[in-house]
Structure to design on (492 residues):
């Protein structure tokens, strides 16, 4: 059980809090990871109706938890952790004073300030906390992505919040890093000699990292049209996963060592600009299509405009210029309104150097390691084997499957729960350092600039598909193809 702490969720009635943060803390309670003296203080700007707040929170839990997770008795107990307060961040008034009175009842308790708000008010929020003397030696600040829209704005935000919080107390969250399978990636690499010996350009042909979503804008139209898929997903989630795949072994698994290795990877990414961007990147935008037989609107229809060049899909080819990964392409892909919801890392190994079996034994498929992060969390290793259903010597790919929900009967991963508890415990190993943010934007900004200068419109793709045809062509030019989860090897 964690030591008691106070967590203040600014934007406590917003979408992120209701869908992710409150359910994550409820799970922590169900798993007896919250001390009875922990308090969850949720702020809201509008006139506060206590009963309505609790009704909304209970409904959110029922909607966003598995059916068997919610119980009336557990909710009755969990309600005692919740302290809704009315608060307008911009107005230093009696509502801020009420928050001070609530928190100063125990000034030595750990304080986690979670900014589930737009990044534009991160600096203001920190300023107000300092003005009200709420920032103590035991305070941590958790900030959501995306941190800025480019290197300049990200640096401005980081500089502003650094006036009030030391770097060791700033927790830049990327919830993908809290997934158990992502953490297991490091265990897979650094505790198994069979993989670490092969984890380099001598044995690996290429790496694919894909995050596909089936949803559209989901009420984020204003933000998303300004950001686009490259800023929203590639700059943080995909580059963080790339770092974990590609980094060298840290000398120990603490925050400083892990972050240092990730920064080295980001610094080794081959820069792209001008014609390189046209050759190595594809961007797309979905139009109306069908998803499981249901007609869904296109991006322009959801947005309510006929003029937007914002990308809802990105595919790109990246190279890491160091000895371990020289000439190994990393293919990154993300998109909305895709055929299925999935996040996975695919390590494609090279073909065997010499074929010893006759052609009549069948084609050889290279080994493939698949690490799936969602919707289920699993690891699959595909290797060649004799077809045991045939008396003749026939070869067939066989897959070793480690599905965590099957192996661990009580397994239920919740990245936000893990990361909130880590922040309360001052464990920064799964969070992002300021220098990582700067390095990521340094690589992303020239791509955005080249797109803007080229003035090309995104390629169109049907909702319910795997993206524009140009994405397939990006790999086909290299003699490769995307691994699309859930489809047969032949159709991938």
């Amino acid at each position: 059980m964690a030591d008691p702490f106070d967590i203040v969720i600014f934007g406590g009635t917003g979408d992120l809090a209701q869908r992710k943060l409150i359910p994550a803390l409820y799970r922590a309670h169900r798993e007896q990871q919250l001390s009875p003296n922990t308090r969850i203080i949720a702020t809201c700007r509008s006139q506060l109706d206590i009963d309505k707040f609790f009704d909304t929170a209970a409904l959110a839990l029922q909607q966003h938890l598995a059916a068997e997770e919610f119980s009336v008795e557990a909710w009755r107990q969990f309600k005692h952790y919740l302290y809704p307060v009315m608060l307008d961040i911009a107005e230093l008034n009696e509502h801020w004073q009420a928050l001070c009175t609530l928190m100063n009842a125990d000034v030595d308790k750990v304080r986690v300030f979670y900014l589930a708000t737009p990044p534009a008010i991160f600096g203001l929020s920190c300023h107000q906390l300092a003005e009200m003397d709420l920032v103590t030696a035991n305070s941590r600040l958790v900030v959501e992505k995306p941190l800025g829209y480019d290197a300049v704005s990200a640096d401005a935000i980081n500089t502003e919040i650094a006036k009030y919080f030391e770097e060791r107390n700033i927790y830049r969250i990327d919830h993908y890093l809290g997934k158990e399978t992502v953490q297991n990636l490091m265990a897979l690499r650094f505790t198994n000699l069979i993989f670490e010996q092969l984890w380099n350009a001598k044995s690996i042909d290429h790496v694919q990292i894909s995050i596909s979503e089936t949803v559209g804008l989901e009420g984020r139209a204003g933000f998303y049209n300004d950001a686009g898929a490259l800023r929203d997903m590639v700059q943080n989630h995909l580059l963080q996963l790339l770092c974990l795949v590609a980094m060298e072994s840290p000398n120990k698994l603490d925050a400083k060592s892990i972050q240092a290795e990730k920064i080295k990877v980001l610094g080794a990414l081959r820069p792209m600009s001008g014609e390189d961007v046209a050759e190595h990147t594809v961007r797309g935008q979905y139009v109306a299509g069908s998803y499981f037989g249901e007609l869904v609107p296109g991006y322009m229809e959801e947005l309510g405009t006929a003029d937007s060049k914002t990308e809802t899909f990105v595919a790109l080819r990246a190279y890491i210029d160091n000895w371990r990964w020289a000439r190994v392409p990393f293919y990154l892909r993300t998109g909305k309104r895709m055929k299925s919801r999935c996040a996975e890392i695919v390590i494609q190994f090279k073909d065997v150097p010499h074929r010893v079996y006759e052609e009549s034994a069948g084609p050889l498929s290279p080994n493939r390691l698949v690490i799936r992060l969602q919707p289920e969390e699993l690891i699959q290793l595909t290797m060649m084997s004799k077809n045991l259903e045939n008396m003749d010597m026939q070869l067939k790919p066989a897959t070793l499957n480690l599905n965590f929900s099957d192996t661990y009967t009580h397994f239920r991963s919740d990245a936000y729960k893990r990361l909130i508890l880590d922040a309360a415990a001052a464990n920064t190993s799964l969070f992002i350092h300021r220098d990582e943010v700067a390095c990521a934007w340094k690589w992303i900004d020239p791509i955005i600039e080249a797109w803007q200068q080229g003035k090309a419109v995104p390629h169109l793709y049907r909702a319910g598909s795997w993206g524009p045809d140009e994405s397939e062509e990006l790999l086909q030019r290299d003699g490769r193809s995307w691994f699309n989860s859930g489809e047969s090897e032949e159709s991938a």
